[in-house]
Design brief:
Chains A, B: InterPro entries: GntR_C, TF_FadR/GntR_C, Tscrpt_reg_HTH_GntR, WH-like_DNA-bd_sf, WH_DNA-bd_sf. Two copies of one chain form a homodimer. Chain A is mainly alpha-helical. Chain A contains nine helices and three strands, in the order αβααββαααααα. Chain A folds into two domains: 8-21 and 30-94, Orthogonal Bundle (Arc Repressor Mutant, subunit A), CATH 1.10.10.10; 99-240, GntR ligand-binding domain-like (Four Helix Bundle (Hemerythrin (Met), subunit A), Up-down Bundle), CATH 1.20.120. In chain A, a hairpin with a 3-residue loop joins strand 2 (84-87) and strand 3 (91-94). In chain A, helix 4 crosses helix 6 (148-165). The N and C termini of chain A lie far apart (48 Å). The structure holds a DNA duplex.
DNA sequence: TGCCCGAATATCGTATACAATTTCCTTGAC
DNA sequence: GTCAAGGAAATTGTATACGATATTCGGGCA
C-alpha cells in the first residue's frame, strides 16, 4: 500500500534506486535509517542545523516521508557519534561543536596520530613502507603542481597510510573516525596560502623518522603537524566570526 | 534481578540550550533495551557467545519476553560500540574481539589516559585537585579493608577524576567511552591477588606527579599503569581459554 | 498573591503488523 | 546425476498503534 513513489518531498535519493546490474554490491543506499543519518550528519556538520536545535522525530519523519522508526535509529546513531545529545523526555538536541571543543578534538587527534607514527616507526613492514613513500610522493607531486584540492586528497591518503602502518587496527579505526569527524571542519582551511608547502615539509620529516625507525621523532613531528593544523583552524574560525553569539 | 541504574545507555552529555545539571533521574525505570544490551554485552565479553555467532532478533526477543523493537535498539547500540557487526539484510554477528584486539584497545587506552594525566598536571584546578585526592583516599581505604569490589568501584572513580581534571572535555568523553567498552572485559580480572596493592601504589605516584605539576611523570606513570592492566588481562585470558573453540 | 495539586499534552519506549529481500529447498531439464 | 531456476520460508527493515511517563498549564485553596 505504501508504494511511496513521491520522493519529491524529500532529498532521500542520493543514488539511483535502479540497482539492476549490481546484485552483489552491498546495498549502501537502501537502508533508510542510514540515509537519514548521513543527511542529518551533514546538515549538522555544515551548520545548517544550528546548535541547540531540537530534532523532532515526527518532523524529521514527515520531512523524509518515513515513519518514526528509521528516524529513531538514525538519531540514536548520531547520539552514539556524539553529534546530538539525548535528553530523556525532552528530545534530541544538536550539540554545539564550539571552537573550544574543536580545539580539544584536534588535541586528541594529534595524540592519536602521534601514537600511530611512533608505532609505525617500530612496526612498519616493507609493503606499508612502500605505500607510505608513494603517498608522500603523491603529496609532493600535488604540491609542485600547486593544486590544493589534489593535495587535500593526497594528504588524506598519506595519513591513511600512517594509520595502516601503525600495526594497531583499533587505533587505526579510532583515528579514522576522528579524522572523518574533523573532515567537515577542515575543509574550511583549504586555501590557507603557504600551508601546503609547510605541510609537505612536515610530511617529509615524518616519513624520514619512520624510515629511520625513530619513533620519538615521528611522534613529535606528527603531534606538531596536527596541532599546527588545529591552531591554524582556530585562527581561521576566530577571524571568520569575531563576535559569534 | 539486581536493578543496575547504569545510565551508560548513550552519550547523555548535558550540553544543549539551557541544560543545567538535571537533578531528575534518568529513566531509572526499566529501559528494556538498555538491560538487554548490558546482558548481551556481558555474554559477548565472557565468550558465552562465540565469535561469528548470529544474534537472532526473534530468539533474543523470545528469550527476554519482549518484542523485537528493544532488541533491535540493543543490537544497534552494540554495533555502535563495535561488539557486533551489522550486515544489511543478513543480521548481526558477534565480532571476534580476539586477544589481539583487546591488547590494541588497552594500548590506545593507555595513551589516552596518559594524555589526560599529562594535561591534568598542567591544568588541574583546586576543586578537581581535591576530588582527585579524595578519590585516592577512597582507593586507599578500600585497599586497607582489602575489599576488592569496593576497590574496583573506587578505581573507576579515580580514573573518572583524572578525566575530569584534564581540562579537555572531548578527551574525557573518549576516554570514558573506551573505559566503558573495556569494562566488560575487565570484570574478569577482579580478583587478581596482589594487583590491588600495586595499583594503589601506582595511583599514589600518579597523584603525586599531578600535584607537582610534573606532566611527563604523570604521563609515564599512567601509561605504565594501564599497560600493566592490559598485560595482566592478556595473561588471564590466555590462561582461561587456551584453545577457545 | 503564592503554592500545591491534578488534568491535558507531548514524547518516549514498546508492541504488533506488513513489506521487501535474502536464503534455501525443491523440482525440472539436460 | 548434476546443475540451474523458481518458489517458499525465513529474516530484516519499516509502518502504525498503544501504553507509560514526564512536563506543563490551569484551577483551587491557604
Amino acid at each position: 500500500m505504501q508504494r511511496r513513489s513521491d520522493q519529491s518531498a524529500a532529498t532521500l535519493v542520493a543514488d539511483p534506486p535502479e540497482a539492476e546490474v549490481s546484485p552483489r554490491r552491498p546495498p549502501a543506499g537502501r537502508v533508510k535509517s542510514a540515509e537519514i543519518r548521513d543527511i542529518l550528519e551533514q546538515e549538522i556538520a555544515t551548520g545548517e542545523r544550528h546548535a541547540g536545535e531540537r530534532l523532532d522525530e515526527q518532523a524529521v519523519a514527515a520531512r523524509f516521508g518515513v515513519s518514526r522508526t528509521p528516524v529513531r535509529e538514525a538519531i540514536n546513531q548520531l547520539a552514539s557519534a556524539g553529534l546530538v545529545a539525548l535528553i530523556p523526555n525532552r528530545g534530541a538536541f544538536v550539540r554545539e561543536t564550539g571552537l573550544g571543543e574543536l580545539v580539544e578534538m584536534f588535541e586528541v587527534m594529534a595524540e592519536l596520530e602521534a601514537m600511530a607514527g611512533r608505532l609505525a616507526a617500530r612496526r612498519v613492514d616493507p609493503k606499508r613502507r612502500v605505500q607510505l613513500a608513494e603517498a608522500l610522493a603523491a603529496c609532493q607531486s600535488a604540491a609542485e603542481r600547486n593544486e590544493s584540492d589534489a593535495y587535500y586528497y593526497e594528504n588524506e591518503r598519506f595519513h591513511e597510510a600512517i594509520y595502516d602502518a601503525c600495526g594497531n587496527g583499533f587505533l587505526a579505526a579510532e583515528a579514522r573516525r576522528l579524522h572523518q569527524r574533523l573532515k567537515a571542519f577542515r575543509r574550511l582551511q583549504l586555501r590557507v596560502p603557504h600551508r601546503m608547502r609547510q605541510s609537505l615539509a612536515e610530511h617529509r620529516r615524518i616519513v624520514a623518522a619512520i624510515e629511520a625507525g625513530d619513533g620519538e621523532t615521528a611522534e613529535a613531528e606528527l603531534k606538531s603537524h596536527i596541532l599546527v593544523q588545529g591552531e591554524r583552524f582556530a585562527d581561521l574560525v576566530a577571524s571568520l566570526k569575531p563576535k559569534q553569539g
